[in-house]
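Kindly go through the following sequence and its backbone structure tokens. Advise at your convenience whether the structure tokens fit the sequence:

___
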Amino acid sequence: MLNQFSRTQLIYGEEAMERLSKSHAAVFGIGGVGGYTVEALVRSGIGEITVVDDDRVCLTNLNRQLFATRKTVGKYKVDVAEERMLEINPALKINKYKTFYTPENSSEFDFSSCDYIVDAIDTVTGKIELVLQSKRSGTPIISSMGAGNKTDPSRFEVADIYETSVCPLARVMRYELRKRGVDSLKVVYSKEKPITPVDDMTISCRTNCICPPGTARKCTQRRQVPGSTAFVPSAVGLIIAGEIINYLTGFAQHNDHN
């Protein structure tokens, strides 16, 4: 019977779509990368999704983040995401957490209930903890490496963390994961050398902070505020979503045998 996922079913088939409708993915961080991952997963027919982010939409998010519009500035990203997701698929089961993921609150999440984990957060300690918790629960995870300060979306690729090079974040992750005995991690990364952001205080968050009152983690607390574009983080997010959908439907194995 014709439905909103019929075009997707033409590729994957009815049985795979049924599996997808019973699958659960958790996306940690729904900004430039994670927002597009969420969008693609929901439009593909996933049955349950967990979104984790403590941030609110900022005016400076409008250049790249899917959930950012003039109407949503100041609202919590997970609230905006929930409203949009239900407009796409009213039958979707949504779990949302207005929290910043850290090792201290990792016990609040049941990783074993998920079929796939997405790491789209930007702190090394949080990323490492996500990987460790996913490995302990046996849940597949894919991690986004650095998407800021880059301009070529065609340079991004999927690889194991120990096969990466050039990317500064991937280098730190390799070092930290090796110390912890983690022998593999699927990541999306680029060999493009990051651009040094222009030092212009007239457009810098450091001197023109517009974060809503009560924002716990402001950009001004960062060592460096990265530049970004509309097309690089979105490309990374969609690559991640594709990896997950192909895995959950069994299509990745199908392609490997062709």
Observations:
- The first strand starts at residue 24 and ends at 28.
- Residues 232-248 form the longest helix (17 residues).
- The chain is about 35% helix and 15% strand.
- The helical segments are 6-12, 14-21, 34-44, 77-88, 124-137, 168-179, 232-248, 251-256.
